[in-house]
Structures are given as C-alpha cells and as structure tokens.
Amino acid sequence: MTPGRLTFFALVLLLGLASRAAAEPAPTFRIRILAARDYRAETLRYRQQLERLVAALNHRTSSPQVRFDLVEIRPWDRLSAQASLGELVEDLEKREPGADVDWVVGIASAVPLVPTNNIGKARLFGKHFVLRSAAFHHYSPTLVFLHEWAHTLGAVHVTEAGSLMLPSYDVRAQALDPVNALVVATVLRARQAGTPPDKLLASLRAILRDRGPPWPEYLREVAPLLSRRAEAPPPCRDRARERAIDELSPVRKPAGKGAP
Ligand SMILES: [Zn+2]
C-alpha cells in the first residue's frame, strides 16, 4: 500500500493506539536503498545486511508500526567517506528522486574521513535520508532508520525519556513519543490526501497549539519551510534548508550489553 491508499485505520495503527485490538496489517511503504561504493566495498554481503534490516523493521511491535517493501537495492556510484551526511542527502535527492517509491534511503561508509559523530541524516518533510553503516555495527539499525524516517514526516527531537526522537542514540528509546506520533500521522495523512503545505501547517498548528517546548519553536521553523515547499526548491546553501536537514548523533552510547 502506498501513502495514497493509506487508510485512517492504518494511521491509528501507526500511532500504536489500537495495536492489540486490530488485526489489520500495518501500512506498507515502498522503499529503494542506494548503497554507496565504499560501503559496498567494505561490507561483505551488503545486500543481505540491508535485507535483514528491512526484515527487522517489519517485525517491530512498538510505535511506529509500519512495514517496508524493499523494491530495490541499487549501487550508489559515489564515495561517501569524504562527504558530509548533508552533502550525501542532497546527492541522493538529485540522483534518485524516487518517483515510484515512498522513500529513498542511502547507506554510506561506516567511518567518515572527516571526524563526525553523526550516523544519520534526513530531509525534514522530504523522502530521502542517509545512514552511515556504523549503525549496523554499534547501534540498532532499525532505531536509527526509524528516527530518520520519522524526521521526513515532520518529527523533531524531544527530551522525553524513551522517545525514538531523542537527539542522541539510546537503545532504550524504542517508540515514538505521543506528540511526535501525532505529527507523523498528520503528515502521513497530508501526503495521502495531497494536502497543500499551508493546510498541513494549519493542521500542525491546531494539534501543537498548546504544547510546551520544543513545539512553539518547531512551528516557527516549519512555517517558512512549508511555505517555501509550495514554491521552487530553495538553493542548496540556504541556511533554512540546512536546518531542515537533521542529524542523529550517537553521543550517548548504547546501554546494556549490545543493541537489539
Ligand atoms: Zn534526529
């Protein structure tokens, strides 16, 4: 099922509110994964690694409960170690618009040559995100994947313990917090309906009106972003656009003996 056919009931499922009562399957989205040249070179059986990631995503029982149909793993003809994650997201968008899929995911080399802590980056309200393959070695790749995926649906960092949207990796953070889950469901529904950005902004304002931090600042930041999306794409070096690309930092080391 594509977002265009996503039912409201499936959105309820996404929020995890009816996960026990409902026998309906979780919504399924089509994804294409592009594997950078150096990631492929350094990873034995990289295709199996990516297929295992998707299988793990599809067996989750925490919010968000979604399924992914891996339509293709395609070589990404570039070296990713030298590039920042922001540059990689932009390159991915240019090379693979992904008109026939719901999301395009790039997998980059594990260790960047320029030291950085970041292991993932996404376009806010976009359909592209990039993960460094370090996510497979030291973290839970499913949690890193879903964190970035949620950013593309408008989710932002919160400080709520246990939220998938903590700014630093935490293996205990397994599920979306309720407000981010509401934002994700709202943006998904807008994609389904082809809702204009100004109407989506009005919906977000309605559900976030009386929330505390970080939501007032969030609304101030997404307002110009959504307005701009109704027009031409902004130039690559636009500062507002830079802010719209998120990074997940692994400052907080995994707790316990290994990630799930
Ligand atoms: Zn993030």
Commentary on this structure:
The chain is α/β, with parallel strands linked by helices and 260 residues long. It has a domain of 125 residues: 3-Layer(aba) Sandwich (Collagenase (Catalytic Domain)). Helix content is 39%, strand content 15%. The protein has ten helices and six strands. Strand 4 and strand 5 form a beta hairpin. Helix 1 runs antiparallel to helix 7. The N terminus and C terminus are likely disordered. The structure holds zinc ion. The site of zinc ion has 6 residues, from helix 6 and strand 6. Zinc ion binds next to helix 6 and strand 6.
Q: What is the fold's blueprint, element by element?
A:
Elements: H1 8-15, E1 28-36, H2 37-42, H3 46-57, E2 67-76, H4 85-95, E3 103-108, E4 120-123, E5 128-132, H5 134-138, H6 141-152, H7 178-193, H8 197-208, H9 215-229, H10 239-243, E6 245-248
Parallel strand pairs: 1-2, 1-3, 3-5
Antiparallel strand pairs: 4-5, 4-6
Helix pairs in contact: 1-7, 7-8, 8-9
Bound molecules: zinc ion.
The site of zinc ion has 6 residues, from α6 and β6.
